Amino acid sequence: MDSGTQQSETGEPAPDPKPVDVIQKFLIVVKDLHEKVNKDTVLKTARSAGPVLSQGTTTISQPEHAVDRMLSFPNMSTTNKSEGPGDHHIPKLQRNLRLLREDVEKLQELRTEVAEEVFKHIRPLELLLENVAKEEKKDPTKPPLTKGMKKDLDDINKKIFNLMCQVPLLPNKRKKAKGFNDDNGDKDNNGKEIVCLPGIHANEEDLKRLAVFRYVLREFKDLTDDIWKICLLSFAVFPENQEVNRTMLMYWWIGEGILSSQHIPSKTGTLQKPEDVVKDILDDFKKRNLIEPVEVKRKVKPSSYKMAPFVHSSVVLISKEIGLFDMFRKKEKPTMSQSRLNKVCLVEGSSSQPQAKAKKMEKPHLIETVFNVSERFPDFAFKWFSEDQSSQNKKLSLSKPTYKALKVFYLGRWERTAKRHIEVENPDLMKNLKYMTKLKLLSFQGISRIERLDDAVCKLRELIILDLRACYNLEKLPDKIDSLKALIYLDITDCYMIDRMPKRLSWLDNLEVLKGFVVSDATDEETFCTLAELKHLKKLRKLSISINKGGFGIIDVFKAVKYFEKLEKLKVAWGGINEHPEAKGVDGGKDAKKDIAKEAKKDKAKEAKKDKANAAVDKKEQPAGIIRTATRKLFGPKVDNEQPELPLTLKKLDLQCFPDENLPLWLEPANLGGLEKLYIKGGIKLTGFRKPQTEITTCNVKVLRLKFLPRLKVEWRDLMRLFPKLEFLDKYQCPQVSFCPTDGVGIWSK
Fold it and tell me: Where are the transmembrane segments (predicted)?
């Protein structure tokens, strides 16, 4: 036995051992173990490996080359037929050891630590090798590795793997810690400690002495409109350098009442939509260097913004001194508390704070805003606005509890990405919504486990924005959704479980933006809202549709939307079409048909009961409902079944997963009228555009996006003839759209 083994038996580590040598010795033991366990594989490998592996003495005298060659053979990394289905322990161990050796070669400064850790496992592995040899002598027919041996190998492998993961991190930290030509990397040139950026706002005295704080304060005071000042301070709730979406900001500001939800006159005398006002505000902040647009190459204009750390910390401090938001304490993590101006921000861990309990919240009747910044389980906030909480508050003398101050209840996700999982553990708490009588904004975006909205939401007569985006478990909207008389924005995008729209959706007279409308295969049009019925929404400007109905093509869509009077943006996505077994010609079609008929009969009976139960309420609450429906059927505009057309007001058309081979004639570039943006994303059948017979001058399309169209065949010169006013082209995975002067990612800009 060599000196290294003797030292291991006495428990003393080798004096300053070299990690590469120790790992190499470990690899040799693993190789011997592998030979014992997989004799057939080793023999095959030895025949093809040449003299190095075939001669035992050469293998020992030149172990590095032998092991390297052994690990390079593919059959050594696969499981031998004689092994059990889970016998992958040794190849994994070999791989991890090899990677560890490569890392250690670059990290000689850590050789002692690594060597000592690996050294501990050599002797146990040698004993394991001896046990395998003993078991083999006893009964060669049995698997050489017992369960206990596999467990020992797993334990060793975990420790080696953990060590391998740690090694590359250590030198990076040490390297960063060293300054340039300076042994002390924790100090800057002035000898002061470098302050961690997330904690800048906690050092108020130092921050106020900085020029950047004076600049932000001066720009803040220069904002002539107090509304714009509050808009700037709202960035204080988000982490620095985090992307904040413009639409989310608009929703929030409308809910707070600092931004009008109505179209207002601009300086030029034209009417400005809220979207335009938000753009003006953010453009002004950008010119003042207070925020930065997040540039995305595939977007013509940015839709998200972020705030640099020092500017953000200055805004946080100004907001705190004014009393608008109060999340930060010196040298502490963000905490949930009610600010002087009655704003509450939920942060990570809020659910475990004492204030999370309804009894601990001092003045819930004064809260104006609840905004979820980073909390994953926010449903405790419902309890603040419960009947019990009101009865316990002695300052309230109401026969029925109401919370008239609350305008924004934003429990959902403000980030566009789905990295933060949010969950409501007790959806029944939504019944407390009926007490939030003055609520303007309600957001459950990205919250899971919400299967249905409580009918209490229909009590929110002043609600302007209902954001249900990405509520993946949501199955149904309330039948009496028309009770939300003030609703302007409804977003149910990515609510995949919803397959039918409530009939009264078309009664929302003030609705301007509807995202996620579902066209399903429901046959009972008396119970569910159809696409054609949305023509009664006289103010509708934006509409996105998800089509889950077989045979509902582009012609059906534009027959329905032809008479939409103010529609500016339309998005249509085909997909999720349900086909019954008998339609596919599979066995059991008759039985399936019977089952479907039974289910349809049950559903119809249930709906009949609901209609009967709601009839009395409708008579009281909706006296004009029956008259309105009858009037629309008799005197409403007739849908032209022969000539589908684009709405005259349409500016943007987005077609996704286009199902046909050709665009209809009225969708060809020459007939697009005032359309300025055309997106076609996905369509494995679409082959191309028709070649124009004459020169096209009427097409106003400036932005064209073509994505995932493998059969679309068109050349650049033809595109320029079809779209003479083109300013921006986005081409992605369209191999037959050729000769376009795009850059490396498929973008061309005029």
Answer: none
Q: Is 546 helix (H, G, I), strand (E, B) or coil?
A: strand
**Does residue 747 have a pLDDT over 80?**
yes
What pLDDT sits at residue 425?
A: 84
pLDDT 10s digits, 283-334: 999 999 999 999 888 888 899 999 998 899 899 999 988 999 888 766 567 8
Q: Per the CATH hierarchy, to which homologous superfamily does domain 324-579 belong?
A: Ribonuclease Inhibitor (3.80.10.10)
Task: State residue 368's pLDDT score.
Answer: 94
Q: How confident is the model at residue 356 (pLDDT cuts 50, 70, 90)?
A: confident
Tokens representing 744 are 């490396």
The pLDDT of residue 399 is 52
Mean pLDDT of the chain: 77
More confidently predicted of 113 and 246: 246
User: How far is it between the farthest Cα atoms of the chain?
Assistant: 102
Please give the Cα distance from 252 to 465 (Å, whole number).
9
- Is the pLDDT score of 248 beyond 60? yes
Q: Tell me the Ramachandran region of residue 166: left when phi exceeds 0, alpha when psi lies from -120 to 50, beta otherwise.
A: alpha
Confirm if 688 and 660 have CB atoms less than 8 A apart.
Answer: no
Q: Give kind and range of the element (H or E) at residue 466.
A: strand 465-467
pLDDT score of 736 more than 60: yes
Q: How far apart are CA 5 and CA 129, in angstroms?
A: 14
Instruction: Check residue 693 and give its pLDDT.
Output: 65
Buried b or exposed e, range 85-113, using 16+ CB within 10 angstroms: eebebbbebbbbbbbbbebbeebeebbee
Q: Tell me the backbone φ, ψ of residue 28, rounded to 5 degrees.
A: -65, -40
Report the chain's C-alpha Rg in angstroms.
34
Level-2 CATH architecture, domain 203-317: Orthogonal Bundle (1.10)
The angle subtended at Cα 249 by Cα 245 and Cα 255, nearest 5°, is 150
How many residues in the chain?
750
Q: Which two tokens stand for residue 371?
A: 């905004």
- Extended strands (E) in 640-745: 652-656, 677-681, 703-707, 714-715, 728-732, 737-738
Q: What DSSP string describes 472-539?
A: TT--B--TTGGG-TT--EEE-TT-TT----BGGGGG-TT--EEEEEEE-----TTTB--SGGGGG-TT
Is residue 720 within 8 Å of 694, Cβ to Cβ? no
Distance (Å, whole) CA 476 – CA 503: 12
Domain boundaries, the chain: 3-176, 203-317, 324-579, 664-749
Tokens of 724: 């003479």
**3-class secondary structure, 747:** strand
Question: Which has the minimum average pLDDT: 243-247, 350-354, 412-416, 529-533?
Answer: 350-354
Single out the residue of 575, 523, 515, 525 nearest to residue 545, CA to CA.
515
Distance CA 707, CA 732 (A): 5
Which two structure tokens, joined as six digits, stand for 593? 């048909």
- Sequence-separated (6 or more) residues with CB below 8 Å from residue 530: 519, 560
Kindly write down the DSSP assignment for every residue of 248-296, as one continuous string: HHHHHHHHHTSS-SS-EE-TTSSEE-HHHHHHHHHHHHHHTTSSEE---
Determine the pLDDT at residue 463. 96
